[in-house]
Amino acid sequence: MTLPTTHVSFPAGAVTGESTVLAVHPLDDGRHAVVTGATPFHPLDHTWPDQPADLGTLTVDGVELAVVDCLTGAVGPDGGAPLVGADIPVRRGDEEWSWLVLHVLATDPGDLVGQDAVLAVDAARRGALSASHSGCHLLALALNEALAPRWRKDPGRADAFGHPDFDSLAMASSVMDTEASTDTYRLGKSLRKKGFTAEAAEDLPALADALPELTEAVNRRLAAWVAADAPVRIDVPGPELTARRQWHCELPEGAARIFCGGTHLHHLGELAELRTELRLSADGSELVAVTRPKRA
Ligand SMILES: [Zn+2]
Predict the structure, then answer these.
(1) Interval 17-51: pLDDT, tens
(2) Measured between alpha carbons, how far is residue 85 from residues 5, 71, 215, 290 in Å?
(3) Which pTM was predicted?
(4) How far is CA 74 from CA 93, 236, 240, in A?
(5) What's the CA-to-centroid distance between 261 and ligand 1, angstroms?
(6) CB neighbour class for 68 (10 Å; exposed up to 12, middle 13-18, buried from 19)
(7) Quick one: the chain helix, strand, coil %, rounded to 5?
(8) Residue 113: count of CB within 10 angstroms of its CB
(9) What's the 137 CA to ligand 1 centre distance in angstroms?
């Protein structure tokens, strides 16, 4: 029997839930994965692993089990054990496949199938990851705006505010932890071909020289958004793990939307401060933004 795609409640911010255990699978490393019909746990995404997994507990019949990791698993139309990470041979969300939240336990919990589980996410960790993730999206918008004058032609991709989408066009990796979001951008030939310039021009200092001013402009924008206490929500087309969700933030300049599989704050007033630090590699080929939220 193929398992149904897991229904998830983390997009709305849930950290607790109850559900029936549908399967327990041994994993390669001696650990075990528990699959439930629904869960509040946010698993690491195998294709875009930006937000780390939720941790927490799973309680069955009064026995509390530590969830030490949470992964995305996929089961093909022929059934069998779920595949994880690089072993998944199809695109994320392939409709022929079932997409499962795997609650990873360090030991074999025995036969739990059919029993009710109480699921509880480590809420403090989740809150910190959500703050970092919201900060990451805001940084993207503020950075796109600050870098807009450096585009010599329209790259053909704009963000919610109509600025050339530097964030998505140059993104090499985006990683959050409980302290910060670290976004790494590649300033290579292909970005230059699309029209971006890091060089000095008549009306523009070289990117390296402009960095302090750019950082200030981005931080001023971030501070204004935090001060506006803008509401944040995730638009959810369906309850499945694989539903194509959108981050939606009602900023003073208008509504911003970004496709996103992660978790977020409910409003920006949950932050006391949001600041970024921009660093350019010595050879100018890489721009790194480390964006730290301070929670109110
Ligand atoms: Zn996101």
Answers:
(1) 999 999 999 998 899 999 999 999 999 998 889 99
(2) 16, 8, 36, 26
(3) 0.96
(4) 9, 21, 13
(5) 6
(6) middle
(7) 25, 40, 40
(8) 12
(9) 6
